[in-house]
Amino acid sequence: MIRKGTDEDFDEIFNIINDAAIAYKEVIPPDRWHEPYMPKEELKAQIEEGVRFSCYVDNNEIIGVMGIQDKTDVELIRHAYVRTKQRKKGIGTLLLRELIRDSTKPILIGTWKAAGWAISFYEKNGFRLVDEEEKNRLLKKYWAIPDRQVETSVVLVDEKYKSSTVRRYR
Fold it and tell me: Is the pLDDT of residue 169 over 90?
């Protein structure tokens, strides 16, 4: 079952993000890795900046989370994580479909360039990579991340992006 995240889910969302993010260790550039991967203060700040989480619940346990953030002319998929022991069961796909189902805006997703599994997941779900110049422009416009992270990331977009004014008017 998928439901909206609540304030009471904060600790579980935090735990799932940091459990699942272990997959990035020794994959992303070492200067981008830290423990915990996402500190509680950063997660709180993300929520305060409008990231709304949905939770996949099985047997009263949250096993997957994914956020979406409205950025006026686009929506960003943020922090998509499934507990390490629960991967490869379609939970990420269910969460992604739920979050984007009713969106009329282009959907953008940023992830690490070295996270081939994540890129493949999004491509299997209909997203496509943008070129380097467009990636840099989008990351600087819609995300608040350091330049080093911009260098080591990619952006994927959905079909709505092709015809959007977001793409045409730089």
Answer: no
